[in-house]
Amino acid sequence: MLRCTIFVTLLSLLAACPGDAQSSPYSSSQGAMPAQADTSQPVNSDVAAAEAALSASDWKTAEAKLDTWIAAHPTDARALFDAGYVADAQNRLDAAAALYRRAVDADPKSFEATLSLGLLLARQHKAEEAHPLLVRATQLDTSSANPALKARAWRALARIDSDQDPAQASDDLLEALKLTPETPDDTLLAAEIAEKSGQQDAAQTAYRRVLAKDPKSEPANAGLAHLLIEKKLFPEAEALLHAALEQMPNDPLLNEQLAGVLAVEDKAEALPLLEKLHQAHPDDAATTRMLAEVRATAGDFAGSDALYGKLLAATPNDAALLLGHAENLIRQAQYAGAYAAFDKATQAEPKNPEAWGGLAFAASRISQPNVTIHALTMRSQLAPETATTYFLWATAYDTLHQNSQAAAYYHRFLDASAGKFQNEEWQARQRLLVVEQKH
After folding, report:
1. Are 203 and 170 a contacting pair, CB within 8 Å?
2. Cα 160 from chain centroid?
3. How far apart are CA 321 and CA 325, in angstroms?
4. What is the distance between the alpha carbons of residues 394 and 410, in angstroms, rounded to a whole number?
5. Alpha helix locations (H) across 367-417?
C-alpha cells in the first residue's frame, strides 16, 4: 500500500499547475509571448491580447478572445495551445487535453503543446498515453525554450518509468539533471527508483538527505519508515514516526504507519490510535482492516467482526477478510458460521493453508469428520503438519471409527505436542486406550 501511495504522490508532481512561476511557459521571465511561437512571425492582435490576459491570469478575457479567434482559425496551433492552457489553469482537464491535442495535430513540432499534453495526461494517470508524448517532447527542438521545460519532460518520464523500468527511470532523471539542478523531489524519486531496484541502502541514504534539509517532508518520512518496516527495524521506525508526527500530528499516512508498527510490536497504543484514525476516515479500507485485526488481538471479537462485515460487504471474496471473520466466529463459538466463512475462503484462495486448516477445525466442531479429513488432506499439500493438525486427523478418524488411523495420529500428536497441549494430551492418551484395544 505504501509503495503505491508514494508513487501516486510523486506522480502528482509531474506538472505544477499552469500558474506556477517556475514551471509555466508563461513565467514572468518569458513575458506574455508563448514559448512555442516563432517570434519572427507577426502575431494577430486578438491572440496577442489573449496572451496579455494570460500573463495577468485573466482567464475569462483570454478565453473569450481565443474562442472568437479559433472559431475562424481552427488550425492555429498557437491559439489552440493558449486555449488549452486557459482550460488547464481552470482545472477543465478534458477540455484542456482536447485543445492541446488539436495544437499538436496542427503543429507536430510544437514542443510546448506536446509537453503540456503529455504532462496533463500523466496527471490524469494515463501513463500509457502520456509516455510517447513525453518521449517526443524530449526529442523536439527546444533551442528557443527554457531548458527547464525539457527537464520537466525528462522528470515526468522518470516518474512514469519508475513503476515498470527503474533502470530507464534512472537514466531519465540523469538527463533532467544535465539541464537543471537537483531538487528535493528529484532526491525523493531517486530514493524510490533505488528501492524498486532493490538498493535499499541507497534509497535510505536518499530519504535521509531530504530529511536533513526538510524534516517535515511527508514523502521522505513515509518512505524511510517503509524501508525500516520492511527490514523489520520496528523500534527505529517507531522513533522516526513519533518524531515526524510531532511536526505533522494529523498526517494520515504517518499515523497509519505508526499504528501498524505499534500493532506489530503488540503495544497497547495501537488500538486507540487506530480507533482515532478510523473515526476520522471511516471509509479507509486499510485502516479499517488494521483496526479489525487489532481489536481481535485485544479480545474484542464482536467489535472486530463488525468491521470485517463492513469490509466484506465491499469485497465479499477477499480470502484474508474471510479468514479474519471466520476466526472471530470461532472465538465466539459460532462454529457453523465459521465453517461457512472458511469454506468460502478456500474457494476464493485454494492454495491458502490457513483457510484449509480453519475449515478442518470448524468442521470438527460441527461433527463433519469427512470434511475435516478432506480439508487436512488439502492443507498437507501446502504446509507441514503441526501438533494441532495431527490432533484433528486423530479425532476425525476416531469419530469415523477408523481405529488404526486414529491411533497412528494420536501418537504423532503426542510426539509433536511435547507437553504444550495438556488437555488434548490427556484426551489423546484416554482415547488411545480405547482405539488400540479395538484395533
Report:
1. no
2. 15
3. 6
4. 5
5. 369-380, 387-399, 403-417
In this predicted model, what pLDDT tens digit does every residue of 285-314 receive, in sequence order?
989 999 999 999 999 999 999 999 999 999
- Count of CB atoms situated within 10 Å of the CB of 96: 22
Per-position DSSP letters for 36-84, written without gaps between them = TS-TTS---HHHHHHHHHHHTT-HHHHHHHHHHHHHH-TT-HHHHHHHH
Q: Within 10 Å of residue 3's Cβ, how many Cβ atoms?
A: 14
Nearest-CA neighbor of 228 among 213, 244, 214, 247? 244
Contact 277, 287 (CB under 8 A): yes
Q: How does pLDDT run across 389-405, given as a tens digit for each residue?
A: 999 999 999 999 999 99
Cell of 138: 524530449
Is the pTM for the entire model greater than 0.70?
no
Alpha carbon 390 to chain centroid distance?
40
How many Cβ atoms sit within 10 Å of the Cβ of residue 9?
17
Sign of the alpha-carbon dihedral angle for 266, 267, 271, 277: negative
Amino acid letter, 382 = L
Q: What's the grid cell of residue 234?
A: 520496528
Nearest to 90 by CA among 118, 70, 61: 61
C-alpha closest to that of 197 among 173, 170, 221, 220 = 170
Cβ atoms of residues 62 and 90 within 8 Å: no
Hey, what domains does the chain have and what are their CATH numbers?
1-181 (1.25.40.10)
What does residue 19 show for φ and ψ, rounded to 5 degrees?
-85, 0
**Of the candidates 227, 231, 157, which has an alpha carbon nearest to the alpha carbon of residue 192?**
227
